[in-house]
Amino acid sequence: MKLKISLLLLFSLIVFSCSQTDDLPAQQPNLQSGVVLTFDDDFVDEWFDVNTILEPYDWKATFFVTRFNQLSANKIQKLKDLKSYGHEIGGHGLNHLNAPTFISANGTNEYLNQEIFPMISLMNNNDLAATSFAYPYGARNSSTDNLMLDQFQIIRGTTYGNQIPALQNCFYNDDRVVFGLGIDKNYSHFSIPYFLSLLEYAKNNHKIVIFYAHKPVTTFQNNYETEYQTLIEICNYVKSNNMKFYKISELYNLQNSF
Ligand SMILES: [Zn+2]
Predict the structure, then answer these.
(1) Would you state the pLDDT for residue 256?
(2) Closest C-alpha to 231, from 105, 103, 47, 98
(3) Antiparallel, parallel or unpaired: β 61-65 and 34-41
(4) Given CA atoms 103, 105, 109, 115 in this order, what sign does their dihedral have?
(5) For residue 93, what are the contacts with CB-CB under 8 A and spacing of at least 6?
(6) Which of 6, 207, 237, 248 lies in the 20 to 30 Å Cα band around 118?
(7) Is residue 159 a contact partner of residue 135, using CB atoms and an 8 Å limit?
(8) Ligand 1 centroid, distance to 211 Cα (angstroms)
(9) Is the pLDDT of residue 153 over 60?
(10) What pLDDT score was predicted for residue 234?
(11) Rounded to the nearest whole angstrom, what is the distance from the C-alpha of residue 66 to the centroid of ligand 1?
(12) Burial class (CB in 10 A: 0-12, 13-18, 19+), 22
């Protein structure tokens, strides 16, 4: 009798769990939680140096480069080396223009011809073709988004503040426009425990956090500087919790795999 009841219970459990699955629409597979670490501007030497510090964490990053026409051959080679190591090199405008401001003064064609097309050609010619773009100053609107989404797979704006994780805008949300939270030490929301709490939220909710930085330094002295310690704590958390380092274009590939 006991066995019958147990079998019945087991049977109903199986039926119940099957029908529950069948009733749901096609589900997206759960994302592997992780981080997208991004860096902006032209701090190539500092990016190259910090790579050595963060290699033990098997880290991957995305470097958004501006003023490519002013980079030395040595810096271009370092970018190639970073790419060979497994990082992504994205575009950050040829002249670091504020997109909405420049477009309202000069028009869309001038923007593309001065800021985007020559950058794309230069990067292509140096075997560093970019599939992603980050806005200088995080300056954007929906028309610049539409313009850039014609040229790139995925684009990144910026976000700030220390809202509770559920209200943060820095998580990947199935969209080709994403927002990175600044982790330079000068931001008023700067707090390593807060950054780690976002990673913990991502880990518990199958999400991906997007951070953005500029110039890695040992000790912060100026704006746009990110201390090694911040990067080490983030990378250590990601590695020790078996989370994934995503390159930004991998987010676009995630969308296409559903
Ligand atoms: Zn910038």
Answers:
(1) 67
(2) 47
(3) parallel
(4) negative
(5) 66, 99, 115, 116, 119, 133, 135, 136
(6) 248
(7) no
(8) 14
(9) yes
(10) 98
(11) 7
(12) exposed
Q: Which of 242, 241, 225, 214 is nearest to 37 (CA)?
A: 214
For residue 226, the CA-to-ligand 1 centroid distance in Å is 14
- Alpha helices by DSSP H, listed for the chain, are 2-23, 44-54, 73-85, 99-106, 108-111, 117-125, 142-149, 192-205, 228-240, 248-257
Domain formed by 34-257, architecture: Alpha-Beta Barrel (3.20)
For the chain, the structural domain boundaries read 34-257
Ligand 1: distance of its center to the CA of 52 in Å?
23
* C-alpha 171 to ligand 1 mean position (Å): 20
Give the tokens for residue 258: 């559903």
Kindly give the distance from the C-alpha atom of residue 14 to the centroid of ligand 1, in angstroms, as a whole number.
Answer: 55
Q: How far is the CA of 29 from the centre of ligand 1 (A)?
A: 34
99-131, pLDDT tens digit by residue?
Answer: 999 999 999 999 999 999 999 999 999 999 999
CA of 247 relative to ligand 1 center, distance in Å: 18
